[in-house]
Write a structure and sequence with these properties.
This protein has 132 residues and is mainly beta. It is built from two helices and five strands, in the order H-E-E-H-E-E-E. Strands 1, 2, 3, 4 and 5 form a five-stranded antiparallel sheet that branches. Strand 3 and strand 4 (77-91) form a beta hairpin.
């Protein structure tokens, strides 16, 4: 399911205490709640964690934070993925802040690691096929 189309559905599941998994667009604005806070300069309000798209957040990750998992055996050997999960907050419509949730991003592992990152698409609908 797509988060943009179903926030009320997700709210009803959350209210009932149900577990759920929803797909989110790569342009979803998130705040990584496990990231270190920006340094306070001593003037004005203390800084908050920045909002960023899932794609920008993913690209800024250190390569060592990904966890490798074997999904199943395939014809040519084990099929492996890399994944990361983080506690995040999403930005809802009208710039409202959503609840804290888990964001899980997976990627296929390829024999040639340089093939993992492709140039960013101008059309947000063209999600990088290696990430989900």
């Amino acid at each position: 399911m797509n988060w943009d189309a179903t926030p009320s559905f997700a709210n009803s599941l959350r209210a009932r205490g149900e577990r759920y998994v929803l797909g989110v667009p790569c342009t979803t604005a998130i705040r990584d709640l496990e990231a270190p806070l920006p340094v306070y300069q001593g003037r004005g309000r203390p800084p908050k964690l920045p909002w960023q798209s899932v794609t920008a957040w993913r690209k800024a990750l250190d390569p060592d934070v990904w966890t490798r998992l074997t999904v199943r055996d395939g014809e040519k050997g084990p099929i492996e993925i890399a994944m990361i999960k983080r506690r995040v907050q999403t930005r809802l419509e009208r710039k409202r802040t959503g609840p804290q949730e888990w964001l899980v991003v997976t990627r296929r592992l390829l024999a040639d690691a340089s093939a993992l990152e492709e140039p960013a698409s101008l059309d947000a609908a063209e999600q990088d096929a290696q990430y989900r």
